[in-house]
């Protein structure tokens, strides 16, 4: 969710409700400011009132990289938005042209890029497996088209497409 905190709009990244011993309960939250992009940990007492700001999610596709920034387009309206690398975060490891993503907007500003649970990427470098190395589930390190490396079975070759779990970054199956 997004909240108005000290006159600034901030996105709530994580919350924990705590009740220490004989003290009053409070909520510990990690928030990121939309203006500055800085994250901070704050405490809210259980009696504090917060103004919740509506968030909007849109299905978009990754178009191209413009310098350090990333350009996404809406497949229905063909509108484009440019998002900074700080907001894209770890999703950069799984972005290929026309990759579907969900972009969360607050006040028409992008605050989060969410990937699907798995993506299909092509293998660009896969060293040969050593003959006789077929004991129990032996794996090798392969490089994918986005530059990340994953552990995959010995039979994977350069040029094959693999399904990768975006939450764990692990090999799932051939695509």
Task: Describe the structure in your own words.
With 175 residues, this protein is mainly β. It is 2% helix and 54% strand. The strands form three sheets. A five-stranded antiparallel beta sheet has the order 4-3-2-1-5, with no helix packed on it. The chain has a five-stranded antiparallel beta sheet with strand order 8-7-6-9-10. The chain has a five-stranded antiparallel beta sheet with strand order 13-12-11-14-15, with no helix packed on it. The longest helix is centred in the middle third of the chain and has 4 residues.
Quick recap:
This protein is mainly beta and 175 residues long. It is built from 1 helix and 15 strands. The chain folds into 3 domains: 52 residues, SH3 type barrels (Roll), CATH 2.30.30; 59 residues, OB fold (Dihydrolipoamide Acetyltransferase, E2P), CATH 2.40.50; 57 residues, Nucleic acid-binding proteins (OB fold (Dihydrolipoamide Acetyltransferase, E2P), Beta Barrel), CATH 2.40.50.140.
List keywords for this structure.
175 residues; mainly beta; SH3 type barrels; OB fold (Dihydrolipoamide Acetyltransferase, E2P); 15 strands
Which topology of the largest domain does CATH recognise? OB fold (Dihydrolipoamide Acetyltransferase, E2P)
The overall strand count is 15
Q: Kindly give the count of domains.
A: 3
For the record, give the distance between the C-alpha atoms at the N and C termini, rounded to a whole number: 35 Å
Proportion of residues in helical segments: under 10%
Total number of helices? 1
The proportion of strand residues reads over 45%
Output the structural class: mainly beta
Our Rg estimate from Cα atoms comes to 21 Å
């Amino acid at each position: 969710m997004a909240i108005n905190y000290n006159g600034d709009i901030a996105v709530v990244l994580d919350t924990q409700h705590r009740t220490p011993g004989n003290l009053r309960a409070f909520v510990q939250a990690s928030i990121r400011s939309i203006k500055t992009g800085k994250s901070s940990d704050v405490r809210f007492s259980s009696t504090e009132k917060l103004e919740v700001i509506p968030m909007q999610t849109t299905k978009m596709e990754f178009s191209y990289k413009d310098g350090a920034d990333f350009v996404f387009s809406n497949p229905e309206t063909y509108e484009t938005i440019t998002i900074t690398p700080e907001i894209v975060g770890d999703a950069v490891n799984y972005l290929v042209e026309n990759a579907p993503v969900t972009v969360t907007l607050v006040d028409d500003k992008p605050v989060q890029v969410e990937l699907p649970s798995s993506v299909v990427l092509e293998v660009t470098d896969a060293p040969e497996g050593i003959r006789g190395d077929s004991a129990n589930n032996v794996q090798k390190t392969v490089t994918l088209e986005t530059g990340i490396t994953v552990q995959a079975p010995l039979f994977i070759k350069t040029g094959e497409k693999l399904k990768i779990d975006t939450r764990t970054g692990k090999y799932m199956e051939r695509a």
